[in-house]
Write a structure and sequence with these properties.
single chain; 132 residues; 5 helices
Length: 132
C-alpha cells in the first residue's frame, strides 16, 4: 500500500517538476564564455568526444584503442610540438604530416571554435619541460 502511495505522489508530482523553469548553467562553477578558462573547459569536452579513445583519459597516449596501433598515439602531456603543428595534425591527420596514418583528419568535423578550444585544452595539460 505504501508503494502505491509513493507511485501516486510521483505521478502527480512529475508534471509539476517538469513545469519548473530550468536552472541557469551560468554561475561560479562555469567560467564566462569568452575567457581562456571557458575555452579550456570546452576543449576538454571536445577531447573527451574525439580524442580520448586513442590518447586516453590522461592524454598520455594510453587510451583503450592505443594497443591496436603502431606507432602508439602520442602522449599529449609530454609532447614537444607547438600549437601550430598540433593544429595541422588535428586538421589534416597524421598521414599528411608523415606521422601515423591512424591519426584521422578532423578538419572537416571540428568547427573553428572547437579546434581553438581543443588547442587551448592541450596547452593547459602540457607538462612543463622535464617535469611530470
Amino acid at each position: 500500500m505504501r508503494l502505491l502511495a509513493m507511485i501516486g505522489v510521483a505521478l502527480v508530482s512529475a508534471p509539476l517538476l517538469a513545469a519548473e523553469p530550468r536552472q541557469s548553467v551560468s554561475g561560479p562553477e562555469y567560467p564566462a564564455k569568452d575567457t581562456p578558462e571557458a575555452a579550456i573547459e570546452r576543449g576538454g569536452i571536445v577531447f573527451d568526444h574525439y580524442c580520448i579513445l586513442c590518447h586516453g583519459a590522461k592524454a598520455d597516449g594510453m587510451g583503450r584503442a592505443a594497443k591496436l596501433y603502431t606507432p602508439r598515439p602520442a602522449n599529449l602531456i609530454t609532447s614537444d610540438k607547438n600549437v601550430q603543428y598540433k593544429e595541422l595534425i588535428i586538421k589534416q591527420g597524421g598521414k599528411a604530416l608523415g606521422r601515423s596514418e591512424f591519426m584521422p583528419p578532423w578538419g572537416n568535423e571540428l568547427t573553428a571554435e572547437q579546434l581553438s578550444d581543443l588547442l587551448a585544452f592541450l596547452e593547459s595539460i602540457k607538462s612543463p619541460a622535464g617535469k611530470l
